[in-house]
Fold:
Amino acid sequence: MKALLEEFLNYLSVERGLSKNTISSYRTDLAHFIEAMEKLGVKDIDGVKRDDITRYLLSLKDKGLSSNSISRALVAVKMFYRFLVQERFIKDDVAGVLESPKLMRPLPNVLGMAEVDKLLGAPDVRDWMGIRDKAALELMYATGMRVSELVNLTIDGLNLDIGFIKCKGKGDKERIVPIGKKAKESIVRYMEKVRPKLLKNRQDQHLFLSRLGRKVSRQSFWKIIKRCARIARIKREIAPHTLRHSFATHLLERGADLRVVQELLGHSDISTTQIYTHINKERLKSIHRQFHPRP
Structure:
């Protein structure tokens, strides 16, 4: 089964062009599934019965996993079986008729505009790393980039004269996103005063570098935003994706078209972008309850 899993993951990478993060998620979910089947004494994929898969899903529920996590696990199993039938490794798709639990997508965590201002003002620009962190935060909020896109952004992806960046999203899909004046100013300051010192005569095309002159990791940027949130005295839990959520929500609140926001975020399906319209509705309800004389 493990050999078939590698075949499937290779298919997702080469033929489907899925991102490394997505493939890693499939690997994790399916490795857990295979391990569960082996504990049941099933050594061959042909020996897996529909009841075995149902039992596996129930075990995930018993472990306290959310319906979202169980749904993702089942999607991975279904995709795996669809591939196996398609490539004629097996004859019957025993997972095909199983139904996923209904997904309840939670509303994203969004900062208010005042909170964003405090967060972006948190880095100490008297310090090298503060100048870098300021540029990174400004760019994330200006463009709605994912943190993975930010850390992989290269010098070639910048066009500061025109005011655009080119970044690679999920599945290596490229998109062009405009940047604002404040983000541009912060990036120019970082590139002129800090980046050459971090680079130390090395050759590296990544825009944001660590103290050692290497590409900043996603984990490092997670720590940066946590530290800046503490400095800004933002009490709620935030993550790098919070700036992306805030970017989209604030655009829609100020009248941006949903299709435009979809393109800026790099969403292939507009239903993914529509979650931000739900946030606006929830805020309207909250304001109505707070200020209407007869709520």
Notes: The mean pLDDT is 87. The longest strand covers residues 164-168. The chain has 14 helices and three strands. The beta strands are 158-159, 164-168, 174-178.
